[in-house]
Design goal:
A two-stranded antiparallel ribbon has the order 1-4. Strands 2-3 form a two-stranded antiparallel sheet. The chain has 65 residues and is mainly beta. It has one helix spanning 57-60; strands at residues 12-14, 23-27, 39-43, 52-54. It is built from one helix and four strands; from the N terminus they run ββββα. The chain binds zinc ion (ZN).
């Protein structure tokens, strides 16, 4: 070994499915007696709520597929 191993660059891209907005709150009914709006938080199914996806290997190797 000749020194510390350089960190491997992890190439991530903004998720093309949700454009980085990975979670959405969806109202699930009318306001209750206290005025609270019940919501469901739904994550993007492609990136599982992270907003980013790993770059395809083809793009890491210069775009050749
Ligand atoms: Zn996404």
């Amino acid at each position: 070994m000749t020194g510390p191993t350089p960190a491997t660059p992890i190439s991530v891209r903004i998720c093309p499915n949700c454009d980085g907005f990975a979670s959405a709150a969806i109202s699930s009914g009318p306001r209750d007696a206290h005025g609270h709006l019940p919501t469901l938080t739904v994550d993007c199914p492609v990136c599982d709520g992270h907003g980013t996806v790993l770059a395809p290997a083809a793009q890491l190797t210069g775009g050749r597929a």
